[in-house]
Specification:
The complex is a heterodimer. The N terminus of chain A is likely disordered. In chain A, about 85% of the residues lie in helices and about 0% in strands. By secondary structure, chain A is mainly α. In chain A, helix 3 runs antiparallel to helix 5. Chain B is of the alpha/beta class. Chain B is about 35% helix and about 20% strand. Chain B contains eleven helices and six strands. In chain B, helix 3 crosses helix 4. The longest helix of chain B has 23 residues. Chain B starts with about 25 loop residues before the first helix and ends with a strand. The chains are: A mainly alpha, B alpha/beta. The interface between A and B is large, with 55 and 70 residues.
Chain lengths: ~100, ~425
């Protein structure tokens, strides 16, 4: 019984399973480098970009010094919020993956 | 020919090392050899700097962890030291630090870092904090700590749950095993069958396998999800250098470029690469570089706005005295002693604001001045000889110009710096 199953399975499935397997061995650079979101790097990256934005606003005199004082925490707040969202989404995706 | 038995499974990884108390104590000479310091790969809360340093000094790592946190609030000394350790120190599992260098060179650099951190503490204790302006350093430090902890938890979550012997074997073996039934043992076990011998598993096969001889499947490429894709650190460094070079070329060509544009551009590139690295590649080390760039940006921007020469206002009449004077960064000197019609000042309110810098008001003796001075950040106030200093300081003093003298109300405010009101 077992040999029967073995032979049939081998004959039928061999070419079909081999090809996509070979394809998977050479993923694109983007696919090879992608990984689950790194929340820490996302948060700090957005915070840095936000600080640069605040600097640009101040340097171009769109906002004056008094406003900058209130504007400075904004990058951290936005980056933190983005980090929480990313963390929640990746956590939910991970739960779906394992369930 | 003897039959090669199936190699025994690798022994389980050794259990956690025994307590530190078992080993010999570290000698003073060994402690002085800074090139020996390694970050700990086992005793780590963030990057293993405190654990490795504690092992080097032969002390409890909790002491150093607390010291790093506390010293962060002393001119950022703890952060500087930890960042340097993170960047420079290799780990005890053999991997190099982010910036690889020889032990002797590393010892010299670590000494310099220790001196810089010490100077930061001294500067903080001396009251001349080089935490520029009202930048929320404490908030930034907490943000960094939170980010690092979140990052570590993220990594721990994505780490394999299976024992370390074959962390990813099952997910990969399963798809191959199922279609081939029992014959998969000849594939996965990597034991070539001797011709004429029945397969190991199951009863003897009555028929020969199919004519097509499948090559053994290549071993599955097992990727550590924590370390996937190219390292972005040196690429980003090169990108920053390229961007700064381009900006410098524009600067030299006559395009007006603010001093702060250089660190801002670098920070923008680092931030962009970090956001990219959050999804693709490995952006390790860029957070620290970004954190080191932020104070440079703040300092350069402030230097950009500081007027090297103090702004000196000497109105000669009450009409030429503006009701308010505002300035970004620099020094403003307002000399009221040249006003001839002092009586016209009676009941007026004078408002002076300098974001960062120094305010000095010279008052004629015959003018009564009710002065209120506010320094929102660290700074100093001197009102008619009365001196106050600290953080978020306010002072109120009145100079009596004599009976019947006109009264001027003066409000002076700065975020960081000094306010001086005196008579002349």
């Amino acid at each position: 019984m077992n040999e029967h199953e073995h032979t049939e399975t081998l004959d039928i499935d061999e070419p079909a399973t081999e090809e996509p397997h070979v394809h998977e061995q050479q993923p694109s650079i983007w696919a090879a480098g992608r990984h689950p979101v790194n929340t820490g790097q996302l948060v700090m990256g957005l915070a840095f970009l936000g600080l640069v934005a605040v600097w640009a606003l101040w340097t171009t005199d769109v906002v004056d010094g008094g406003d900058v004082r209130w504007l400075l925490p904004l990058p951290f707040v936005l980056a933190g919020a983005a980090g929480l969202v990313a963390s929640a989404i990746s956590g939910a995706a991970r739960r779906d993956h394992w369930s | 020919m003897t039959e090669t038995p199936t190699p025994p499974p690798p022994p389980p990884p050794p259990s956690a090392p025994s307590g530190d108390d078992d080993g010999p104590r570290t000698s003073a000479e060994e402690v002085r050899d800074l090139g020996r310091i390694r970050r700990s790969s086992t005793d780590r809360k963030v990057a293993g700097v405190a654990g490795g340093l504690a092992r080097h000094l032969d002390v409890d790592p909790v002491i150093l962890r607390v010291a790093f946190v506390v010293l962060t609030f002393f001119g950022g000394a703890g952060l500087i030291a930890y960042a340097a350790g993170w960047l420079l120190l290799p780990t005890d599992d053999g991997s190099e630090g982010v910036i690889a260098m020889e032990d002797r060179n590393r010892a010299v650099v670590l000494t310099i870092v220790a001196i810089v951190a010490g100077l930061a503490i001294v500067a903080e204790l001396a009251g001349d904090a080089w935490g520029p302006f009202w930048f929320p350093w404490q908030l930034a430090a907490v943000a960094v700590i939170v980010a690092v902890l979140v990052n570590r938890r993220e990594r721990r979550r994505s780490a394999p749950v299976a024992p370390p012997a074959q962390p990813y074997a099952q997910p990969y073996a399963q798809p191959y095993a199922q279609p081939y039934g029992q014959s998969v043992q000849g594939w996965v076990g990597d034991q070539p069958q001797q011709p004429g011998q029945p397969p190991q598993a199951g009863p003897a096969a009555p028929a020969a396998p199919p004519a097509w001889v499948a090559p053994p499947p290549p071993p599955p490429v097992v990727r550590d999800p924590r370390r996937r894709g190219p390292r972005l650190f040196w690429f980003t460094v090169a990108l920053v250098a390229l961007a700064l070079g381009g900006l410098g070329t524009l600067d030299l060509a006559g395009v007006p470029v603010a001093d702060g544009a250089y660190p801002a551009l670098a920070l923008g590139v680092i931030g962009t690469m970090l956001v990219l690295g959050a999804f693709f590649g490995r952006a390790g080390g860029l957070i620290l570089v970004g954190l080191l760039t932020v104070p440079v940006l703040v300092g350069a921007t402030a230097a950009d706005r500081i007027d090297t020469e103090p702004l000196r206002e000497t109105p000669t009449s009450a009409a030429s005295l503006d009701p308010s004077y505002r300035m970004g960064v620099g020094e403003l000197v307002l000399d009221l002693t040249g006003i001839e019609d002092l009586d016209e000042l009676d009941g007026k309110v004078l408002d002076i604001t300098v974001q960062v810098g120094r305010i000095e008001v010279l008052v004629p003796r015959g003018l009564t001045v009710e002065a209120t001075a506010t320094v929102n950040g660290p700074g100093e106030i001197r009102l008619f000889g009365e001196q106050r200093g600290g953080i978020d300081t306010q002072a109120r003093e009145t100079h009596d110009g004599g009976p019947g003298s006109p009264v001027l109300e003066l409000d002076a405010e700065t975020n960081l710096g000094e306010i001086v009101v005196r008579t002349r």
